[in-house]
Amino acid sequence: MQRLITVLFTLVLVCFAVPAAADNTIENIRMWPSPDRTRVVFDMGDEPVFSYFHLNQSHPYRLVVDFPDTKLNFNLDQFDSNSLLVKTIRTSTPKDTGGTRIVLELDKIVEPQIQSLGPQENYGHRLVVDLPGTSLERDRSALRAEDLQERKVTVAIDAGHGGEDPGSIGPRGTYEKDVVLKIARALASMINSDPAMQAYLIRSDDYYVDLNERPRKAERVDADLFVSIHADAFVTPQPRGASIWVLSNRRASTEMGRLLENKERLSDVLAGVEPAADEQEFLNETLVSMSMDHAMLSGYEAATEVLAELKRITKMHKTKPQHASLAVLTSTAMPSMLVETGFISNPGEEQLLRSNQHQQKLARAIYQGVRGFFMRRPPDGTMFASNRASRHVVKSGESLSILAQRYNTSVTAIKSRNKLSSSVIQVGQVLEIPSPE
Ligand SMILES: [Zn+2]
């Protein structure tokens, strides 16, 4: 039997005739995944000279970039790919001695767009490699169709601490991480039983998620609101009561500064539109501060709504939302708040926080506050925006008093809104739910 060895070897060689620059360096490699591409940036010591080719015969597919007479001053071992498209970036034996060969291992075959950029503001020479294709967990463009069909609002629920980080520990040995996970789960189930809302748990079990990663996870699922749940602690047992924290201006300025340094990330904010160089700084600042102002303002509003509900069921430590400089409250994409549900260091409150009944009450109050916020400030394209959130189809086992409690209204208000003469309701009956007071 004749054996035929077929070697499938796709080789595309592209060379650029740029005058040879001797002794160039790669100082840094940065990567920016986005919903529609991954951008890999090589920060160069001098104008880059390069050639590249594909190896597409087997998975992972490879894009090989050769830099002649170039030294790599960057440790690729520390490089952690956060793109679904680029699995890893590594070096390989260079074509010529004194050169550097960089291999990008890719999950899909893509046609790269490569351009070299000259020095600009804080940047020197760069080689920018754009790889088209979804590189984040969820494609934002795919959401647009959903938007048209009156989507649900997504509430990201962040149970504080977890795993090796217990959070604060009460005098009876209660771990904050356990209490807040129970409240977070109760809140998630209330939100998921609301036809206009869905919950996304940042951590659904006992493990740790990096602080900066928490808001990023929420952003990746396009959350409309971020609620972090904690329990307070103090060195003395006296302090007690709940409080809510929102993003402070100081943190915002820091975050804004950080954003402004990252032009590539800003390119995403700017929806891929590159403004003229002289306008860029001004436009960037304006756009970032606009989205920051919006997120901060609505975060404060949401916190005020939740605070009003918490006040009804538990003692408050602070009666107004407090401004904080906390890593979890840094998103410009959505309003965020951090709820301190009580002092776990106070023996009485520790006892309460341990009880399932009180956990349910706290979750209910947060849910009602969040719902009230979306009723007043419905995000575009949501069921809240089209008033469908105020319609309820009666399910088995529900009564007017159950619905009044769930939607934070009264039996009388539901009856009068629906012109009901009795309190008897039937499965399948559609009720208009009045806005909370
Ligand atoms: Zn905490």
UniProtKB/TrEMBL annotation:
<keyword id="KW-0961">Cell wall biogenesis/degradation</keyword>
<dbReference type="InterPro" id="IPR021731">
    <property type="entry name" value="AMIN_dom"/>
</dbReference>
<dbReference type="Pfam" id="PF01520">
    <property type="entry name" value="Amidase_3"/>
</dbReference>
<dbReference type="Pfam" id="PF01476">
    <property type="entry name" value="LysM"/>
</dbReference>
<dbReference type="InterPro" id="IPR018392">
    <property type="entry name" value="LysM"/>
</dbReference>
<keyword id="KW-0378">Hydrolase</keyword>
<comment type="similarity">
    <text>Belongs to the N-acetylmuramoyl-L-alanine amidase 3 family.</text>
</comment>
<dbReference type="InterPro" id="IPR036779">
    <property type="entry name" value="LysM_dom_sf"/>
</dbReference>
<dbReference type="InterPro" id="IPR002508">
    <property type="entry name" value="MurNAc-LAA_cat"/>
</dbReference>
<dbReference type="GO" id="GO:0008745">
    <property type="term" value="F:N-acetylmuramoyl-L-alanine amidase activity"/>
</dbReference>
<keyword id="KW-0732">Signal</keyword>
<feature type="signal peptide">
    <location>
        <begin position="1"/>
        <end position="22"/>
    </location>
</feature>
<dbReference type="GO" id="GO:0030288">
    <property type="term" value="C:outer membrane-bounded periplasmic space"/>
</dbReference>
<dbReference type="Pfam" id="PF11741">
    <property type="entry name" value="AMIN"/>
</dbReference>
<dbReference type="GO" id="GO:0071555">
    <property type="term" value="P:cell wall organization"/>
</dbReference>
<feature type="domain" description="LysM">
    <location>
        <begin position="390"/>
        <end position="433"/>
    </location>
</feature>
<dbReference type="InterPro" id="IPR050695">
    <property type="entry name" value="N-acetylmuramoyl_amidase_3"/>
</dbReference>
<protein>
    <recommendedName>
        <fullName>N-acetylmuramoyl-L-alanine amidase</fullName>
        <ecNumber>3.5.1.28</ecNumber>
    </recommendedName>
</protein>
<dbReference type="GO" id="GO:0009253">
    <property type="term" value="P:peptidoglycan catabolic process"/>
</dbReference>
